[in-house]
Amino acid sequence: MKIARVTATPLMASFAEMFGGADNVPPHIRTPAAHFRGIPRVGQMTTLVEVESNDGIVGFGEAFGLPHPMSATAIVNSVVAPVLVGQEVGEPSEMTGVLYKYFVALGSTRGAAMEALSGIDIALWDLKARTAGVPLSTLLGSTPGPVSTYASPVGFHDDPETSAKAALDFLKHGFRAIKIKIGRGAEIDALHVGAIRDAVGPAVTLYVDINCAYDVRTAIGVAESLAPYDLGWFEEPIAPEDVDGLAEVRRNSPIPIAVGENEFTLPAYRRLLDAQAVDFLQPNITRAGGISGVLEIGRMCKDAGVKLAPHGVGGCTAIGAALNACRAAPGFATYEANKLLNPLRDELGAHPARMENGMLVAGDLPGHGGEPDAERLARYRLAYGA
């Protein structure tokens, strides 16, 4: 079986279109976290990747879409596709190996090039599972079934009472673990986290996500101030490239440290582990090597005594792929059910991910089950320059 076609398509769901104008988009949608306060979000974006065999079977992948999906699209269509078309379908990580070395030699170890390869890896695994007629989880040596899940996010609301209500809404849907966006200063952070803890009670697991808003000293101070609220982790407290600083935060934080959504390569994750800078690693399957990357990072976590908690942002294809990978990955602890408004996740899929008892489920369809619905796809295609 050989590859006959490799195609990437940029997708976007505009918030302005959803709300009837940019001025009508609620603030907690435009600026849901610390890193969007200066450059607000305008919509949900991703890059859909398709790999078709000469047998006519199509595997679907997804490359991370922010800040804009056109970059990964161009790399897949103009650089990756000419290399892969005509190759025999084999081990996905080996098929992308030459391309990986090429991008590394060019210094492209972060960003769109690695995201493009991640989308290709996912599509290749999906193609292999579809060809075999089995769920991807089965091909990976596991089985379909539920995946431990937490809800995210309680975003930046104006008052603690609104934050508490948002958390309670998650509980109504069966979730027993919730992630809160913080990063507006120790006092504001504590007011919102405290209100949420009071509202949900002690039995609900709470995580907090700083999205790199603080420096080392501030992060340690905020972690100390939030310690009374019994938090499960303290996520991305500082800039991701400051591994030594992160290790210092971990040594001094009363709350476990989680990080990894902004890393791309196995050596980067190895540096975090070697520096003893992390308690939870959070790779995003659409930028950290796809299925192959998540499985290998899981093996690294298990060997290091660190827990795997993959990042859950993405469209329907990313979710389907991640759930199957979570079922098979060593060291797996929990997965993020991101609930920020996203039609690319909730409306585009031919088989939307389902929930049972507060957990997302890796289904029993052939492949990862996250393929888009062909008729809905046209609605979200992004024209060049848009």
Describe the structure.
With 386 residues, this protein is α/β, with parallel strands linked by helices. The chain contains 16 helices and 14 strands. Helix 9 (186-200) links the parallel strand 6 (177-181) and strand 7. The model has no long low-confidence stretch (mean pLDDT 95). Helix 12 (266-274) runs parallel beside helix 13. The protein has two domains: 3-138 and 375-380, Enolase-like, N-terminal domain (Enolase-like, domain 1, 2-Layer Sandwich); 142-369, TIM Barrel (Alpha-Beta Barrel). It has an eight-stranded parallel β-sheet, covered by helices on one side. The two termini are 37 Å apart.
CATH class assignment of the largest domain: Alpha Beta
CATH homologous superfamily (4th level) name of the largest domain: Enolase-like C-terminal domain
Secondary structure tally: strands? 14
What is the succession of H and E elements?
Answer: EHHEEHHHHHEEHEHEHEHEHEHEHEHEEH
Number of helices: 16
Compute the separation of the termini in Å.
Answer: 37 Å
Compute the average pLDDT: 95
Weakly predicted, low-confidence segments: none
Mind describing the biggest β-sheet?
8 strands, parallel
Number of domains: 2
Numbering strands along the chain, what is their spatial order in the largest sheet? 11-10-9-8-7-6-5-12
Looking at the structure, the CATH topology of the largest domain is: TIM Barrel
* Cα shape: globular
| Overall CATH architecture of the largest domain | Alpha-Beta Barrel
How large is the share of residues in beta strands?
Answer: 15-25%
| CA-atom Rg in angstroms | 20 Å
